Hints:
Elements: H1 6-22, H2 25-43, H3 48-70, H4 74-96, H5 108-123, H6 133-140, H7 143-146, H8 154-162, H9 169-200, H10 207-238, H11 256-262, H12 265-279, H13 288-306, H14 310-336, H15 338-357, H16 361-371, H17 381-400, H18 404-412, H19 416-437
Helix pairs in contact: 1-2, 3-4, 3-5, 4-5, 9-10, 9-17, 9-19, 10-15, 10-16, 10-17, 12-13, 13-14, 14-15
Amino acid sequence: MIFNDLNFILIFLPAFLLSYFLASSYYKNFIILIYGILYYIFGNINHIENIIILLILVLINYIFYYLLYIENIDSVKKIKLFLFVLFNVITIGVFKRGIIVKTIPNGLSFYTFHFISLLADSYNRKGSEKISFINFIQYIIFFPKLLSGPITRYEYLSEQYKNISTDSFIKGLYLFSIGLGLKCLLSDNIYYIINQINVYGYESISILTAWLGVYSFTMNLYFDFAGYSLMAIGIAKMMGMNLPENFNLPFNSKSVSEFWRRWHITLGHYFRDYIYIPLGGNFNNKNLFGQIINIIIVWLITGLWHGFKLNYILWAMSVCIIIILEKIFLNKVYSKFSLIGRILVIIFIPFTFLIFSIENISMLTVYIGKLFDISSIKNIREFMYIFESYWKIFIIGILFMTGIPRRLSEKIYSNKYLMLILAIILIIVSCVMININMADTFKYFTF
């Protein structure tokens, strides 16, 4: 079940909120657990194997967690952690390769990341109190973050379970509605540009259409995942809980490195805390070669996490190369000419998202060729047709990637009645669009 499904918006979410608010404080955690289980069951009603896989992995990883928790010999504990993490990594690989089932179980990568964080934190003994099996399940299956994050540490949520407040319901509803609008009104409509380019065929498009497509791929992905993240944060806030921010105006960045600190923030923090730092991190900034090796490893893992396909590896390595160049010398250039860093973000990042979005390498090669085919500028008939048809949504998309909407939204936060009115309007309009176009699944569900 996806957040932009009418069954979720009009039936499941209202039923959950009604049950949640009617329950006493003592039973609220129980309601969260039950509805988390129901959410995954309803979303996989035609794929029972996904439910079985989740339950088996929860049981296995709790056993792993318990074995780590009770182990007191450091050398043995380290071996156990390595083997348990390796099991989870292999599990992701097996399912992404379609060895057991043809499709990847919903949320596999994200709930496996949460398994690994629990195991790593158990190894480091973060939080001396042992986690009960019920609390373990509740953390994993917390439905706002279950399928696509934000990736959240156990202690971040567990403390909030103890002091749940419902004072932020309207703000949460408002954030949910904005996220729904980003997905249904922006991302899904911008996809029509991409679809129109696909109809013409990459071999036939002009250089202008090719670059229009580059930015359309970027905005489609941006609003899809930023929308999901805001919806997840909004649902949690309606419950009186907080999930971490996942996007912070990434296209306002002054470098590619900064962009990736602002995009999918929780994933970046996860790789930093559980891969980059354990590998040695920056080696106190003394060993540049070691830093570069660690950056390459992290980005290679990032590419493979998205899928065992060549375009994801090419995407990850292209980003990795620029980040390394920034560390070696580009940051010094940016310090004198900051505009260069901003221009690189605006041009290079969308180019990498093109690589990310087109899985067929031969088609990707054709498309990249069109980006530099100056001679095709004489033939812009298809560009004029596409741009005249969709220029409004394209311009609005660009506007919503700036800080202007956020500053306006922050002013609205002070007026709960205005927030409520706008939330209702956005939800109604989005539901109408969903009814017309049908719900399009979130792209990160496939990872």
